[in-house]
Amino acid sequence: MKRVLSFLLVAAAMVTFGAMAHSSDTAKAGKAGKAKYLVIAPHTAEQCLATLDDINAMNTKALASWDFGCKSGDHTGYMTVTAGSEDEVRAMLPANGRDQAKIVKLSKFTAADLKMAHQDMEKH
């Protein structure tokens, strides 16, 4: 019984902490008028080193912000960034890769959002 109670208390604390962290992140993004974006920036094998060099030349931390599939044959860079607009994100990219980059504004869904979406679907 004590183990079950302890487990329930720990689980409740984890859920509470997770909800607080999520609402804190959401509040920060909303207050500043910023959103989270995913950048998908493809390049060819021939462009690979030049692309990496361009990102590295932007500043000392730029290269660490990216994840690449190049070593697996997927010559694409992936990055998440918080910004005020898609244009702001595009300005963060090296000039020679801006046109090819896909920028996706990301969203989180809560259980309530999902329930509402199902209710809306049933109406139509």
Would you kindly provide a written description of the structure presented here, covering whatever features stand out?
This protein starts with a helix and ends with a helix. The protein has a 4-stranded antiparallel beta sheet. It contains 4 helices and 4 strands. The radius of gyration is 20 Å and the shape is elongated. The protein is an alpha+beta fold and 124 residues long. It has a domain at 30-105: Alpha-Beta Plaits (2-Layer Sandwich). The protein is 48% helix and 20% strand.
**What structural class results from the helix and strand content?**
alpha+beta
Judging by the overall fold, what is the CATH architecture of the domain at 30-105?
2-Layer Sandwich
Total strands: the figure is 4
Q: Could you tell me the radius of gyration in angstroms?
A: 20 Å
Q: How confident is the prediction overall: mean pLDDT?
A: 82
Overall shape: elongated
Distance between the termini: 48 Å
Strand order of the largest sheet: 2-3-1-4
Strand coverage percent: 15-25%
The ordered string of helix (H) and strand (E) elements is HEHEEHEH
Query: Helical stretch count?
Result: 4
Major beta sheet, specifics?
Answer: 4 strands, antiparallel
Unreliable spans: 1-26
Name the helicity range: 40-55%
Question: What is the highest CATH level, the class of the domain at 30-105?
Answer: Alpha Beta
